[in-house]
Amino acid sequence: MKMKADRHTVLVGGKRLELSRLNKVLWPEAGLTKADLIAYYWQIAPRLLPHLYKRPLTLTRYPDGIEEGMFYQKDTPSYAPDWLKTYRVVSDDSREIRYLLAEDEATLVWLANQAAIELHPWMSTTDHPDYPSYAVVDLDPATGAEFGDVVEIAGLVRVLLQELGLKGYPKLSGASGIHIYIPLWPRYPYRLTSRFVGYLGELIVKAYPQKATNERLVAKRDGKVYIDHLQNLPGKTIVAPYVPRPLPHAPVSVPVEWEELIVTGSGRGVQPHDFTLADIKVILARPPLFEQMYQAPQSLDKIMPLFAAGEKEGQKVH
DNA sequence: TACCTTA
DNA sequence: TAAGGTAACCCATAT
DNA sequence: ATATGG
Ligand SMILES: [Mn+2]
Ligand SMILES: [Mn+2]
Fold it and tell me: What CATH number corresponds to the domain at position A298?
């Protein structure tokens, strides 16, 4: 049976958008369609946009749903509407990429119609492209590790940060791990923020080698939680908060309170897939936990000597 | 998803 | 006309 | 040098 006029024209923020194949199923197991994705992005816009402002994007697109082929996209295609904001980067080999900037509802809706399920913003803004405005502690459970282990390691990260006079903001990755954002003044280059997180990782592995690991070789991670500091290097990105994942039940990466994660006594802490695309109302009803981040950038100046030994300008002298 | 290239 | 291809990175680290 | 992982 063929669905009739599976398309609609909508007006978003003064822009006319042609939406296509609205009934196409993107998450077969959950029965969620492109219409659902568009509705989600439209509604979540006020929560999401602050985290995308001035941040060039990498997209992951799934035009035939999460069980079919995907592709990454950085360069804005020529067929994109001319009102889209872009940021031009010319690499050494003079290749040019026009990165997309998503700074309004209309752009989000257009992206969703393109079946761009995931948005991965830079950790730096176009104001200071080489200086990230946050570092991320990316906690990835290896096979055999449980989410409780991830939470345990996250708790150690929290205490360690407190020890260093810093504050971190946790979110569910939406897959199986946790991302802890550490807002910074945009004055430390990527190399250094990566080194900083690597230092945190070393301390935690030293303190808890049973469950934390730095091993780059998957085989040596066994049932442990991998502290992936390399995720902070230039060109790497992490899925933005409030972005859905291309996994069976459309779980969403959602900021959480430390107290929701680390539950004392008999209660059950928040679980990795507690929020899905279908839970848009629940997600919107939660406080915007990450928004204060940008009002509270932090300094690494005092603790830099602990991990930046011989860093300086970064290059080898000879 | 949309476009381009090739048969 | 239709089928097939393309749409991104790359480097820190280990061996 | 080459492989690996994310
Ligand atoms: Mn991760
Ligand atoms: Mn990772």
Answer: 3.90.920.10
